[in-house]
Amino acid sequence: MASTTMRSLPFGIFLLPLLLASVFGHTSGAREPFACDPKDAKTRDFPFCRVSLPTQERVRDLTGRLTLQEKVSLLVNNAAAVTRLGIKGYEWWSEALHGVSNVGPGTKFGGDFPGATSFPQVITTAASFNASLWKAIGRVVSDEARAMYNGGVAGLTYWSPNVNIFRDPRWGRGQETPGEDPVVVGTYGASYVRGLQGDDGNRLKVAACCKHFTAYDLDNWNGIDRFHFNAKVSKQDIEDTFDVPFKMCVKEGKVASVMCSYNQVNGVPTCADPNLLRKTVRGVWRLDGYIVSDCDSVGVYYDEQHYTSTPEEAAADAIKAGLDLDCGPFLAVHTENAVKRGLLNENDVNGALANTLNVQMRLGMFDGEPSSQPFGNLGAKDVCTAAHQELALEAARQGIVLLKNRGPSLPLSRRRHPTVAVIGPNSNVTDTMIGNYAGESLSLFKKHISMINPQAGTHTCVACGYTSPLQGIGRYARTIHQQGCADVACATDKLFSAAVDAARQADATVLVVGLDQSIEAEFRDRAGLLLPGRQQELVSKVAAASRGPTILVLMSGGPIDLGFAKNDPRIGAILWAGYPGQDGGAAIADILFGTSNPGGKLPMTWYPQDYLSNLPMTSMAMRSSRSRGYPGRTYRFYKGPVVYSFGHGKSYTKFVHTIASAPTVVAIPLHGRHGSGNTTISGKAIRVTHAKCDKLSVAVDLDVKNLGSMDGSHTLLVFSKPPHAGHWAPRKQLVAFEKVHVPARAQKRVRINIHVCKVLSVVDRSGIRRIQMGEHSLHIGNIKHSVSLQVATLGVIKS
Ligand SMILES: *[C@@H]1O[C@H](CO)[C@@H](O)[C@H](O)[C@H]1NC(C)=O
Ligand SMILES: *[C@@H]1O[C@H](CO)[C@@H](O)[C@H](O)[C@H]1NC(C)=O
Ligand SMILES: *[C@@H]1O[C@H](CO)[C@@H](O)[C@H](O)[C@H]1NC(C)=O
């Protein structure tokens, strides 16, 4: 998002919006209608209030009644009231990355709503590879959001999820994303959005927002920050990496909003780029919704990037490019003058408003009483329910990844109530477990952000409650607790000897180490990949002294170079918990003691530290370059050594899978004029736009057998390699994934459909997506299958 940091801006600009913001009530209680109040005879009968009219007509009616000044006052996140038409002010900025949060000024905790269910950070939830879980979380979050809206303490427009690719392991916001693979990120985005927005046709439960469009994944590295970064991106990388999740969000998730980012892409600020916004997002992908700026993006490209010479030009450029709503005051201040100077037509402003009003109508905001609408019955009793909190716990159990299990050392025995030494800077943490976008991490930026969001950072706890690792382990064992390091920075070894003593006395040792928001956060990229300070030394010393097995548990958003622990025989097992959410400690304990079987898989590559030696964060290229010694990024393009690879993750049981059936030849039908000649088949790769793509898929049936004595879930990751790698194609690409639960000693058959045009295609250097004809090799774990793609009109079998 929306920046949790605001640049300092001239103070006067903020006074007007702040006054308007105070109109927006603070008290919790039944919400008054936003507009079209049935009790208000003067305004309730306008055509724009008529539920029976088509939305478009209602929007046109309302737009026709507004003056230019009124229209302009609606172009910003804290939209002004239009009292004469019975319309109240509205704060558009709310956030729900992994639970309703108070990061945006549209949501406030307190009174009947002291907190909300805080799910694991997204990188952890992504590791579950369970799309139905992602959607289920979205449903719960939107129940709580609607309940809080009805109670007058939250909005209906949520600027989540973050679907940027986790391109560089140092990125401070990588934790907010579903990882490094475009298909996983896009599937997560579309699933979470559908959960949030509901399945009621055109009507929206809440409006989600996929951000930050695009090629935005640098916060502050080596003196370069996101406000001044010009991402130089090739057409090829845009098409086969950066755009993929956004396209899936819009086309498959039907998201109601897209946010443009702070940075420039190839010299143009994304929020001023008509090719990105008007042409691609709205034109090609057909966004039905609004495009919003990241907070003060327009001000940033005027003041900081000096992209235009006057503020009116900056405002005009944004709206003409396709921006509909400004987070920040810039458009409210400068748009009227832009129109007066002829830089912009009032019709352009109408177009922007049509998109925001359309979403408000679909949310029911012009339908009168909130209580008589769908979800009108939700209230305080529906927030932090036992079922919601159970799902947060379940999400953590599904997301935790077992990286190593020598012996095996895990699960720990529950018999004879063992004594466990619980050691490390993250061993008894609470809000560290929820990562960012939950309130607390903002305090550092409070000074800046308070101008646009006065209440940010004032709440330190927004979860329903917490279970720390120490508390979780305490449910299974007697514990001896030692911090070992005062905090994750671990500057001294002062507490080491007490920790070593504890490990000597216990039946088993659990070390909980890693990172927190002081190491990786918004506006804070990491310098390296090793454990901070002297944590590594703590781990090795404690492991050497432990009487029983030593288990290492890591909390982090980004990957850690754990080479030392992977190879240390005294460290029996390693778990990565990401940031596991409000009950993360309970989930960790359930896995340690085997009441839950781990099934998570890494959604990003874990690189060794020296991967960074020739890898400026500012180099956007995904593909490696031998001549420049550039290693390339993510499992799709990087071939060098790794600590743990994308998709790695063990189980307490043993699964095998075999192919039950799969086609060996698939015919690709072409559209009429392309099917008649050979002109488009040159180079043995046809353009995706020339193929009849609908329902064109490769169906693979797999049998999954659980050979062990414990129930568990197995994730099938299907990778493909095209016939000709060349400079076009990734070395391999995830084309489908499916998670399946299989009881001990049972077997299940799973069908996986691989969409030919979407995922078996590759992108050429000009950014054109093509399907290579010939043998595509599919890899699923250790099994391989070849499928030959052939053009249907050349006389091969029609599928
Ligand atoms: C662990 O954290 C909880 C909650 O913050 C606190 O009440 C408790 O005293 C801590 N326990 C230890 C042993 O430090
Ligand atoms: C297309 O190419 C194939 C093989 O190169 C050839 O046999 C065939 O006659 C061509 N078809 C047409 C319509 O040109
Ligand atoms: C996916 O998550 C849902 C919701 O928690 C759960 O019911 C289901 O069993 C999970 N699927 C697998 C295969 O574990």
From TrEMBL:
Subcellular localization, as worded in the UniProt entry: Secreted
Secretion signal span: 1-25
Give one GO molecular function term: xylan 1,4-beta-xylosidase activity
Fibronectin type III-like domain ranges (all copies):
714-784
Keyword Hydrolase included in the entry's annotation: yes
User: Does Membrane show up as a keyword for this record?
Assistant: no
**Annotated PANTHER family:** BETA-D-XYLOSIDASE 2-RELATED, SUGAR HYDROLASE-RELATED
Q: What is this protein called?
A: Putative beta-D-xylosidase 2
